[in-house]
Design a protein that fits this description.
With 498 residues, this protein is α/β, with parallel strands linked by helices. It has helices at 24-27, 58-63, 66-70, 151-158, 163-186, 202-209, 258-267, 303-306, 347-360, 386-409, 424-429, 432-437, 454-464, 470-474, 487-493; strands spanning 3-9, 13-18, 46-51, 73-75, 85-88, 111-117, 121-128, 133-141, 193-200, 229-232, 245-248, 276-281, 285-290, 295-300, 321-328, 331-336, 344-345, 375-379, 382-385, 419-423, 447-452, 476-478. It has 15 helices and 22 strands.
Length: 498
């Protein structure tokens, strides 16, 4: 097979590939997103051809003007490389949230690996169980994302053209590589790994474990819950010292995975005397409300807007993203990750910008923009459109309505919630006051705690402290909001800004 070179700028990197490969299979690790799974719909995979030739198809003609095509603009997902080319692109420099806290209660003598398998990001940590401390961390972007950024696009790919097998192979190989890097970095020739504990959302669980994803593609989204997936490392061709047991902890319900189980354990919500809530805003939005007696959980399709998806200038929390907006002398002032010029806006920046616009009177309670051009300039060239406002309203209304439904099922109100934990990367960086201003979190709720990566912290507790979790299952009930008759009414009621 003929080998050709691709030059990537401004990285100054040359990649040797086989002629005929699609750029989608090459560029993800170098910074190009494929949120729509390569269908040429979202336009997030724009690159510029500097040298050589990349054929233009009808999808690209519809997306770009003749002038843009002449200037070299292409959609990477639509391009197959047949000859040497030079491309201009932007490298991933994304903030991936990990957790390095030590544990007061120590475990057995040995080593283990904890893995947080997210739809977007991956974190693996090597743990000294006896010392109760982290001795190594590896982070990465989930390589499956080249076939779709959100849960539903990943499911769609899995159900077509043997996609499940491909996604399984990708993620198993990627995590295996991360675990081996951790072991090498320990520089201990006698190291033996006792176990590899993994948590993730339900879709990630099913794809990794090889379970049928079909039930998650249609209502009522029923799936296998409460069962831990356990297998010796060698059985899936992982060669690790000690041949550790791989344990993917069980899901709580459809679209409420073991990452939320780990979150309940990390926050010790299951021990609380008073009503406590946990919200994890990642690619999906999961909600938990309960105390030591009973726990309810649910999921909503609220995550994408908070991660910058479906937003006109939205992007991940990476270099060039506006991540924070404040008001100074009546004007918006932006913080840009990595400095330099603004390329887009991530979820925390969007919440801030909308809260500022509400305070400035640029947006009314209904979400309507009141400016001459029906758009709000955050920092040129980044703007917020009317559709962006609607997407944020849909997302925050889904979370607020879900929280109300769970409280109602517990014969409680929002005022009864004494503590609420906000988990995940978005929850870690969000301005809590602005979250209250836009109605994502009700101002009647008590203490708000930004809890960081509760999924990773929780899986480490399970491993180090040999945390028992079956009793949590016995008192936890999943509420499927998609078929709840009251959810839509509350959803509509929460659409406006406070």
């Amino acid at each position: 097979m003929k080998k050709i070179n691709i030059k990537l700028e401004p990285l100054g990197k040359i990649v040797k590939i086989e002629a005929g490969l699609f750029l989608q299979d090459i560029l993800f690790e170098y910074g190009i997103e494929f949120p729509c799974g390569g269908n040429g719909i979202c336009g997030k995979c724009k690159i510029r051809l500097l040298e050589g030739n990349l054929a233009v198809n009808d999808i690209q003609r519809q997306y770009f003007s003749k002038e843009e095509l002449a200037n070299g603009w292409r959609l990477a997902c639509q391009c197959r490389v047949m000859e040497p080319v030079a491309l201009e692109l932007v490298q991933w420099e994304m903030q991936i949230l990990s957790d390095d806290q030590e544990f007061r209660i120590k475990g057995q003598n040995g080593f283990a690996v904890a893995v947080d398998l997210g739809s977007t990001t991956l974190v693996a940590q090597l743990i000294d169980e006896q010392a109760g401390k982290v001795i190594g961390t590896e982070t990465a972007l989930n390589a499956q994302a080249k076939y779709g950024a959100d849960i539903m696009s990943r499911i769609d790919f899995a159900l077509n053209n043997s996609g499940s097998e491909k996604l399984q192979k990708i993620i198993r190989q990627q995590i295996y590589s991360m675990v081996r890097k951790l072991i090498r970095s320990a520089r201990n020739p006698d190291i033996q790994i006792d176990q590899v504990g993994i948590v993730g959302n339900t879709v990630m669980h099913h794809l990794f474990c090889g379970k049928d994803i079909t039930p998650m593609s249609r209502v009522p989204f029923e799936t296998e819950n409460g069962k831990e997936w356990t297998v010796p490392a060698r059985e899936i061709d992982w060669t690790l010292p000690g041949n550790p047991e791989l344990r993917f902890y069980p899901c709580l319900g459809s679209f409420v995975g073991s990452d939320i189980l780990a979150g309940i354990i990390a926050t010790e919500l299951y021990k609380e005397e008073e009503l406590t809530a946990l919200i994890d805003l990642g690619t999906n939005g999961e909600i938990v409300v309960g105390d030591k007696n009973q726990i309810l959980c649910a999921s909503t399709a609220a995550g994408p807007a908070f991660e910058g998806a479906k937003i006109s200038r939205g992007m991940r929390a990476m270099k060039g993203a506006i991540s924070k907006v404040t008001l100074e002398n009546g004007q918006m002032k932006s913080h840009i990750i990595g400095g330099g010029s603004a390329k887009g806006i991530c979820g925390s920046g969007l919440v801030d910008a909308v809260a500022c616009a509400l305070e400035m009177g640029l947006i009314d309670k209904s979400g309507r923009i009141h400016t001459d051009r029906d758009e709000i300039v955050v920092q040129s060239p980044v703007i917020i459109t009317q559709q962006d406002i609607r997407e944020l309203q849909l997302a925050k209304a889904a979370i607020a309505a879900g929280l109300e439904i769970l409280c109602q099922r517990l014969s409680a109100s929002l005022m009864d919630i004494q503590k609420i934990y906000i988990a995940g990367a978005f929850g870690n960086y969000i301005n809590v006051n602005n979250a209250v201003k836009i109605g994502l979190i009700n101002n009647r709720i008590g203490k708000i705690i930004q809890a960081g990566n509760t999924a990773l912290n929780g899986v480490k507790k399970i491993i180090i402290q040999n945390q028992e979790y079956q009793s949590i299952f016995q008192r936890t009930r999943h509420i499927p909001l998609a078929v709840d008759t009251e959810f839509m009414d509350r959803y509509v009621d929460n659409m406006n800004f406070p």
